[in-house]
Design goal:
The protein is of the alpha/beta class and about 300 residues long. The chain has ten helices and eight strands. The chain has one domain: Alpha-Beta Barrel (TIM Barrel). An eight-stranded parallel barrel has the order 1-2-3-4-5-6-7-8, surrounded by five helices.
Length: about 300
């Protein structure tokens, strides 16, 4: 319904005022909410939001885009997203973690890390974002894995207290170190799950990136059932190449079936680089997701 009404109601680009967008019926509520990381799409912010709406997606995710927005811009984008019946669901706390000393692994950088979390909470409250992603950072030469893990756990506990008090949830995201993020510390969902459980805080949860888990461990289903109850967001891309699901080695119908079986009720976000026209690609991928979850 959303796609048909969108094409009927606005044959041209949607104005920021959202006049045409207001004609579009919001997507139906679902136990699992579809989303997309905006950085993977082409065009201006408005065009990327519009592409998500055209595909029938229910929510959008940010990395660092929001940091550059003035209060007025944040208000306009929030209004535009809402006009499509969507919302924002995640932002990143350490938006330039490769460039500044904000690692969770180094106790000397703890206050820098916590400062980033506090600022992210301000952004999250402004944009009504429920989830804030945090990154472990890269391994520190000369320190043992155990030392760095203890520091990461302490940082997660401290940040988790801030999140709990603010009514938002931190998402710890493991990234693969074999291809995309050489030297990254937290590389798999088994250790990410251990960290989440170790905080003892319901406002610290896991972001399960299916692509990163496949590249790092070669197996997504091995940990999925155990991790799903502690996961709020899944990210979708195929491997190798980080392209459309179905173009690589990951058996997404089986992955979606396992997610549905787990009772998961959070967000599943497309975070891949579309091979073809992006709206058509997203429509196909979201339809595949919904079919897999219903099977």
């Amino acid at each position: 319904m959303l796609r048909r009404e969108f094409m009927r109601a606005s044959g041209a680009a949607v104005a920021l005022a959202g006049v045409a967008a207001a004609q579009i019926a919001p997507p139906k509520k679902a136990k699992i909410t579809s989303s997309v990381m905006l950085w993977t799409l082409k065009g201006t912010t408005e065009e990327r939001i519009e592409a998500a709406a055209r595909a029938g997606i229910q929510s959008v995710e940010l990395v660092s885009e929001h940091v550059q927005w003035s209060d007025a811009e944040a208000g306009r984008y929030k209004k535009l997203v809402r006009s499509f019946g969507m919302g924002f669901d995640t932002i990143l706390a350490q938006t330039d973690w490769k460039k500044r000393p904000v690692s969770m692994l180094d106790p000397a950088q703890r206050e820098n890390f916590l400062k980033d979390v506090r600022q992210a909470i301000v952004y999250a409250q402004r944009l009504e974002v429920p989830y804030i992603i945090v990154m472990s950072g890269d391994e520190i030469a000369g320190r043992t894995h155990e030392e760095q893990y203890r520091s990461m756990l302490e940082g997660a506990k401290r940040a988790g207290e801030l999140a709990f008090n603010a009514g938002v949830t931190l998402l710890v995201e493991p990234l693969n170190a074999k291809k995309d993020h050489k030297g990254f510390f937290l590389t798999n969902c088994a250790e990410g799950l251990k960290l989440v459980k170790g905080t003892g805080n319901p406002n610290v949860r896991l972001l399960f990136d299916i692509y990163h888990e496949q590249v790092q461990t070669g197996s997504v289903l091995g940990i999925l059932a155990e991790a799903a109850p502690y996961t709020c967001v899944f990210h979708v891309a195929d491997a190798p190449g980080r392209n459309d699901p179905g173009l690589g080695v990951i058996n997404y119908p089986e992955v979606y079936k396992a997610i549905a079986k787990s009772g998961f009720a959070g967000y599943i976000a497309m975070e891949y680089l579309p091979k073809g026209e992006q709206v058509a690609s997203l429509i196909k991928s979201v339809d595949q997701m919904r079919d897999g979850l219903a099977s």
